[in-house]
């Protein structure tokens, strides 16, 4: 059973279960000939994600030189001490207060998007995709009338193919736009995340790092959250008994989001690292200089860690999923992603308790590739409200 065929795209879990049963780590070669190691068990994954002997540095090839630095200086691709400095700066700006202050706006945006939900319709297009984009614009402080162009570049970057002319042009346009936006925020300080980061610029944050950080927040915060919202609605439609639990007790919505993160981890394998020392996992020793990816999708269903791991259970008591990573690179945006997903699911169910899929769940189409786990479309119907 392979990781690269249509069968895997339709349902990755049988192949991942087979690998997990065989051992904690496996050598994988892509159809394009790229070799890496994939970790499939929870205990080893926790170790790998936090082991300082694994580096996050990754070359960003295939972009014109003037755009390289704007992509490569992001903290997700850095090790300490650079990572520590960048993470500290953005953490100071990405405060719990700033996230919580977004709550009414997230509710407003969700309600507006739900007002436009058609039946039958596509929940990804109507809600899951636009919501995180609008929210990230609010957080960063992208002015309302500039969001159309911003959305165009952002979509090309997220949905497009790295290295194509269209992709490179979108990055170039986005970088140009951001540099202009920062100039304006320098001239007239604003009380938003980019305003706070601009004021940290100078000795502590270079201008390329500022651009790179913003692009990281935009990209890391968008598609993953789209997948989380889509996967949560998919799982509830597929398991009517669990949906009924939530309708009877809406206080379980946060638990349903955690269970979705575990069972259908949106960021399936986006955990690149490279060995700087030989790494022994089980009976395998990985040499220096090899790429290692943790399959979060696989490790979050490890029976050594979770009881009845393949069951979707909103009353589950065993936490500890690794869907947001672990260690110093633990997802910075986890509180924001949780806030958005909880509001989206809570509002959707209270307005449309009768929501259901218009096609059998087996016919739904998933995004291709190993990195992300999310639906391309989620066809649903709801009764008129
Ligand atoms: C890092 C998942 C939403 C910003 C990560 C990592 C994971 C992850 C697994 C660690 C990668 C690694 O260790 O190699 C997710 C999921 C999300 C989500 C599943 C939604 C459901 C967001 C949002 C934002 C965000 C909304 C920001 C607005 C970041 C950043 C990092 C990161 C900046 C890098 C942290 C560092 O290097 O220190 N995310 N993420 N993420 N995430 Fe998220």
TrEMBL record:
Signal peptide: none annotated. Pfam families: p450 (PF00067). InterPro entries: Cyt_P450, Cyt_P450_B, Cyt_P450_CS, Cyt_P450_sf. Keywords: Heme, Iron, Metal-binding, Monooxygenase, Oxidoreductase. The keyword RNA-binding does not apply. Belongs to the cytochrome P450 family. This is Cytochrome P450.
């Amino acid at each position: 059973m392979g990781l690269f065929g249509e069968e895997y795209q339709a349902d990755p879990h049988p192949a991942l279960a087979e690998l997990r049963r065989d051992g904690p780590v496996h050598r994988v070669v892509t159809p394009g000939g790229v070799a890496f190691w994939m970790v499939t068990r929870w205990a080893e994954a926790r170790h790998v994600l936090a082991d300082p002997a694994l580096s996050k540095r990754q070359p960003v090839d295939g972009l014109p030189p003037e755009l390289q630095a704007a992509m490569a200086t992001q903290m997700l691709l850095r090790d300490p001490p650079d990572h520590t400095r960048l993470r500290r700066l953005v953490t100071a700006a990405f405060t719990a207060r700033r996230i919580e202050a977004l709550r009414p706006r997230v509710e407003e945006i969700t309600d507006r998007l739900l007002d436009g939900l058609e039946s039958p319709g596509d929940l990804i297009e109507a809600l899951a995709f636009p919501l995180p984009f609008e929210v990230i614009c609010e957080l960063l402080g992208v002015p309302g009338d500039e969001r159309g162009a911003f959305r165009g570049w952002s979509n090309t970057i997220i949905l497009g193919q790295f290295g194509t002319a269209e992709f490179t042009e979108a990055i170039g346009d986005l970088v140009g736009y951001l540099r202009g936006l920062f100039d304006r925020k320098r001239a007239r300080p604003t009380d938003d995340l980019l305003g706070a980061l601009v004021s940290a610029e100078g000795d502590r944050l270079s201008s390329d790092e500022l651009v790179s950080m913003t692009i990281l927040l935009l990209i890391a915060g968008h598609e993953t959250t789209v997948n989380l919202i889509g996967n949560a609605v998919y799982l509830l439609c597929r398991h009517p008994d669990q949906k009924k639990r939530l309708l009877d007790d809406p206080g379980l919505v946060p638990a349903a989001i955690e269970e979705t993160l575990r069972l259908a981890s949106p960021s399936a394998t986006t955990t690149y690292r490279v060995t700087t020392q030989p790494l022994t996992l089980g009976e395998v020793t990985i040499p220096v200089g090899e790429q290692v990816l943790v399959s979060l999708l696989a490790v979050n269903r490890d029976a050594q860690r979770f009881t009845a791991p393949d069951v979707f259970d909103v009353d589950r008591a065993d936490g500890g999923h690794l869907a947001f990573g672990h260690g110093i690179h633990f997802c910075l945006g986890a509180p924001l992603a949780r806030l958005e997903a909880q509001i989206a699911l809570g509002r959707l169910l209270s307005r449309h308790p009768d929501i259901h899929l218009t096609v059998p769940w087996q016919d739904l189409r998933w995004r291709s590739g190993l990195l992300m786990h999310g639906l391309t479309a989620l066809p649903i119907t709801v009764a008129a409200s």
